[in-house]
């Protein structure tokens, strides 16, 4: 993940190391028994649900090589999907993944969509361009994966703090535009973070001023945590709204994975963030580092496993449904987050 990546940088002799059991969840009688947990890989998940991938269309935001989004795309490509739509800010950064997929899986259609989540105009243009590449088809699964983390203070052209804009607001608008236009067939998966598991009375006051008094009160990790908590609340609110349409939504923590997402984080920043997090969550164990294959497993289970259908709106961690007290408390702010997000994008959504 994302804050669990921070946690893993703390000296382990100061805290108990998290043990990683493989918890049983999905077994199929007509397939080899499969148990999902911390050590599960994306390839294992895809292998079990090949029928949920073959001939299907997937959209993934932020599939930069070396990240879990790209790893998800590579895992999905092994099971003969019809179409992988890769949405990113810069083609040159995604091109190595496109080249890899085209070389190893030439029968899979791969499309690139230019998408700057920090710019609402770009998000709207991306949604229109998705219609073009779909050519009348639907997206079976949308994976809202892109993120920035603990970056220096900046406001977007729309006047919103950049982490909130990129991690939550841009995805809120993109997901809702695709849903409003009837382009999503089955699932919406929102990649959140362990950082979302902070106390609501600490995080949610940040909604009152998304400029952070023009940077004077800006805390990069608190802002990141707020954006990731809003990811969870977005998935929960969507689940309620989309129930009649039988479209499921999930949020998740991918785990502690070393990627370029942590480019702004110094050792001092990491340790301070961990200390603050552990004060709010005494007894939390340090997540062990995952490989990219392990890191993409949770979002792929959320995207593919039919047994999760009755858990729409749930948050997953280590491939398991994990409803936390922090998220339950934050649900009191779910409608406020939705209404504020509609106000910021200038549009109301009813599905």
Automatic annotation (TrEMBL):
Pfam family, one: adh_short
UniProt entry keywords in alphabetical sequence: Oxidoreductase
UniProt xrefs under InterPro entries: NAD(P)-bd_dom_sf, SDR_fam
Source organism superkingdom: Eukaryota
Gene3D superfamilies tied to this protein: NAD(P)-binding Rossmann-like Domain (3.40.50.720)
One Gene Ontology MF term: oxidoreductase activity
PANTHER family named among the record's database cross-references: RETINOL DEHYDROGENASE, RETINOL DEHYDROGENASE 11
Record family assignment: Belongs to the short-chain dehydrogenases/reductases (SDR) family.
Protein name stated in the entry: Uncharacterized protein
């Amino acid at each position: 993940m994302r804050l669990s990546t921070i946690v893993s940088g703390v000296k382990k002799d100061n805290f108990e190391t998290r043990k990683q059991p493989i918890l049983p969840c999905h077994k199929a009688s007509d397939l080899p028994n499969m148990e999902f947990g911390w050590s599960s890989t994306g390839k294992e998940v895809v292998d079990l649900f090949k029928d949920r991938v073959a001939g299907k269309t997937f959209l993934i935001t932020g599939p930069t090589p070396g990240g879990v989004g790209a790893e998800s795309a590579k895992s999905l490509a092994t099971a003969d999907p019809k179409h992988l739509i890769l949405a990113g800010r810069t083609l040159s950064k995604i091109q190595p993944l496109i080249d890899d997929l085209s070389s190893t899986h030439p029968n899979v259609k791969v499309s690139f969509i230019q998408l700057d989540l920090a710019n609402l105009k770009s998000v709207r243009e991306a949604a229109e361009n998705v219609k073009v590449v779909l050519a009348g088809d639907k997206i079976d699964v949308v994976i809202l994966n892109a993120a920035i983390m603990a970056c220096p203070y900046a406001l977007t052209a729309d006047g919103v703090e950049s982490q909130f804009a990129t991690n939550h607001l841009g995805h809120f608008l993109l997901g809702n535009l695709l849903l409003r236009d009837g382009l999503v067939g089955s699932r919406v998966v929102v990649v959140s973070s362990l950082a979302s598991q902070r106390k609501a009375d600490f995080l949610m006051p940040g909604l009152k001023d998304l400029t952070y008094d023009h940077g004077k009160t800006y805390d990069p990790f608190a802002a990141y945590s707020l954006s990731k908590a809003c990811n969870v609340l977005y998935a929960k609110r969507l689940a309620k709204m989309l129930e009649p349409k039988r479209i499921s939504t999930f949020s998740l923590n991918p785990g502690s994975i070393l990627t370029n997402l942590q480019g702004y984080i110094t050792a001092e920043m990491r340790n301070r963030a961990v200390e603050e997090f552990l004060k709010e969550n005494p007894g939390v164990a340090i997540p062990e580092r995952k490989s990219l294959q392990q890191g993409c497993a949770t979002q792929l289970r959320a995207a593919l496993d039919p047994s999760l259908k009755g858990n729409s709106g749930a948050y997953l961690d280590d491939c398991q449904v994990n409803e936390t007290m922090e998220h339950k408390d934050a649900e009191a702010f779910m409608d406020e987050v939705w209404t504020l997000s509609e106000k910021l994008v200038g549009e109301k959504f009813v599905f």
